Amino acid sequence: MPPPAKPVQPDLWEIHKKIERGELTLEAVLEELYENIREKEPKIHAFLSLSEKEALLSAAEKLKDTEFCGLPIAIKDNICTTEFFTTCASRLLEKYRSPYDATAVARLKAVGFQVQGKTNLDEFAMGSSTEHSAFGPTRNPWDLERVPGGSSGGSAAAVAAGEALAALGTDTGGSVRQPAALCGVVGLRPTYGLVSRYGLVAFASSLDTIGPITRSVRDAALLLSLIAGHDPKDSTSLPIEALDLGDLSPRISGLRLGLPREYLPKELGEEALNLVDRWCATAEDLGAEVLEISLPLTEYALPAYYLIASAEAAANLARYDGVRYTLRVPAPGVAEMITQSRTLGFGPEVKRRIALGTFALSAGYYDQYYGKAQRVRTLIAREFQKAFEKVDL
C-alpha cells in the first residue's frame, strides 16, 4: 500500500499552532499517538524504550510556559539522553545510561520538547535495514513484510505509523534519508558540522550527523532550526550561531537544479525514470532551470565510504573493552575478558566492519586502502564544488 499524499495526522507545526490557539490539547495529541502505539507497535517494533502517556502529561505541567509546551519527540537510540538507556541496539550497551543529554536533545528540551522514547536502529548505526539490532528488527509500517530502511529505521517507522510526531535520526551514509524514503516521510541530512555531534555515540566521526525525520518539509526545517548552531563541546561544529528556516519559501523560480546523469542508469527502470522526467517538467513549469550535469567520480563513492567508515568504526569501537560501560564477561585474565566481552557484545555486522576497518588500517595496507579512499573523497568533494559553480541544487 503506497503512503498517502498527506500525513496520517497533522504535522508538528500545525499541532503546535493549534495548541497555541487553544484549539487542541496536549492530552488529545498524546491519546492519538498512544492509540497508534497500542495498535501498531507490537508488529512494527519502532521503539526500544518508551515513556508512559501519563508520565509525559505529568511532566508537561512544568512545561506549560515553554514554546512547545511538552510536545513529545522520539530519539534514535545512539543519541544520549538522561531519561532512558542509550543502547545503540547492542548487547554491549544494553544497560548504559548516559549522565548527560546530547546537545541536540538538550536544545529541544530547552524549548519545551519531551523525549517520548528511544527508537530502534541497526547496531551502532551500521546497516541499512534495521535488521541488525540486538533487540529484533523493525518492520515497515506500510508493509510488515518489508524493511523500513536503516539505520534510523525505528525513527522513520515511528513517524510513518503515527506513533511519533517527529524524531531525530543519524546519518553516516544515508541512514536518515534512506529510511525516510522507504517509509514515505521526510528525512534531512544536515551539512556536516551544522548540528553538534556531542552526545552522539560515534560510528564514523568524519561522516556522522544528526538530522530530523518528520511528516513534512516545514517540520524538518523547524527541527533543524532548533538543533543547529555552534557548540563549543564539538570541535567539528561550524561557527554558526543560529539558523532561521521559519520563512521557508515554496517558490523555486530562478533556481538552477542539477540532474547528474550518473544517478539515472537504465537499471532504475522505466517507471522510476518517467517519474524523474515528470518531476523535471514540473520544476520547469514552476520557473526552475533543470540542467544535466556530470559527476563521474560517483562510482567510487561507495567503496571509499565503506573503507573510511569501517576504519573509523574500528578505531571508535576499540573503547568497548569490558572494562568500561556495561557488559563485562568474567575471565581469568584481562586479555581474555576483553576478547570475550567484545565477542559476546558485538553482533555479526559490527564485527565485519571492525574487521574490514582494522585490515584497512594495518601496516602495509594503510596507504593502499584507507589512504587511497581519503584521496578519492577529496576528489569527489572537489567535483561537487565545481558542479555548484553551475547549479544551486
Describe this structure in words.
The chain has 393 residues and is an alpha/beta fold. It has three domains: 12-227, Amidase signature (AS) enzymes (Alpha-Beta Complex), CATH 3.90.1300; 256-294; 298-387, no CATH class. Helices cover 38% and strands 10% of the residues. The chain contains twelve helices and eight strands. The chain has a six-stranded mixed beta sheet, sandwiched between helices. A two-stranded parallel sheet has the order 7-8. Helix 4 (103-110) links the parallel strand 2 (72-76) and strand 3. Helix 9 crosses helix 11. The longest helix has 22 residues, at 366-387. The radius of gyration is 22 Å and the shape is globular. The two termini are 31 Å apart.
Secondary structure layout:
Elements: H1 12-20, H2 26-44, E1 47-50, H3 53-60, E2 72-76, H4 103-110, E3 114-119, H5 153-160, E4 167-171, H6 177-183, E5 186-187, E6 209-214, H7 217-227, E7 256-260, H8 270-285, E8 289-293, H9 301-316, H10 334-345, H11 348-360, H12 366-387
Parallel strand pairs: 2-3, 2-4, 7-8
Antiparallel strand pairs: 1-3, 4-6, 5-6
Helix pairs in contact: 5-6, 9-11, 9-12
Would you kindly provide a brief summary of this structure?
By secondary structure, the protein is α/β, with parallel strands linked by helices. The chain has helices at 12-20, 26-44, 53-60, 103-110, 153-160, 177-183, 217-227, 270-285, 301-316, 334-345, 348-360, 366-387; strands at 47-50, 72-76, 114-119, 167-171, 186-187, 209-214, 256-260, 289-293.
